[in-house]
């Protein structure tokens, strides 16, 4: 039987998995002044939590991308119609990271 002379090497396999995560947030209907029609609005804190983003960072990012933003006694409200349009335009990365540049530094 032939004798093997073995040299140490390494086999590396990378497997990319697609993970589907479903999260929900309650919305409420109101007249969006910018859309000119009734739209669903979602609370900033709740939608930022869906994307695991800090509310202030999320707000900066959606504001920078022209999302319709209103306020009421419960806080900042995001127009879902304009936010979905933003997602469709691809203005937000596929990984939904809403990081935006920090000009304060
Ligand atoms: Zn709107």
Structural class estimated from helices and strands: alpha+beta
Helix-strand topology string: EEHHEEH
**How many helical stretches?**
3
Instruction: Note poorly predicted spans.
Output: 99-105
Strand content: 15-25%
List keywords for this structure.
four-stranded antiparallel β-sheet; 3 helices; single chain; 26% helix; 105 residues; rod-shaped; 4 strands; disordered C terminus; binds zinc ion
Describe the structure.
- The chain has 105 residues and is of the alpha+beta class.
- The chain has a domain at 27-89.
- It contains three helices and four strands.
- The structure holds zinc ion.
- Residues 32, 34-35, 39, 68, 79, 81-82 line the site of zinc ion.
Strand-helix topology:
Blueprint: E1 27-32, E2 37-43, H1 44-50, H2 55-64, E3 69-72, E4 75-79, H3 80-89
Antiparallel strand pairs: 1-2, 2-4, 3-4
The site of zinc ion has 8 residues, from helix 3.
């Amino acid at each position: 039987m032939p004798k093997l002379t073995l040299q140490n090497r390494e086999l590396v396999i990378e497997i990319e998995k697609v993970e589907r995560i479903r999260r929900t947030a309650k919305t409420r209907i109101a007249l969006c002044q910018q859309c000119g029609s009734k739209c669903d609005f979602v609370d900033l804190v709740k939608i930022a939590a869906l994307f695991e983003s800090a509310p202030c960072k999320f707000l900066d990012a959606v504001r920078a991308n022209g999302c319709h933003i209103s306020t009421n006694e419960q806080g900042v409200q995001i127009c879902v119609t304009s936010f979905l349009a933003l997602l469709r335009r691809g203005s937000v990365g596929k990984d939904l990271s809403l990081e935006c540049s920090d000009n304060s530094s």
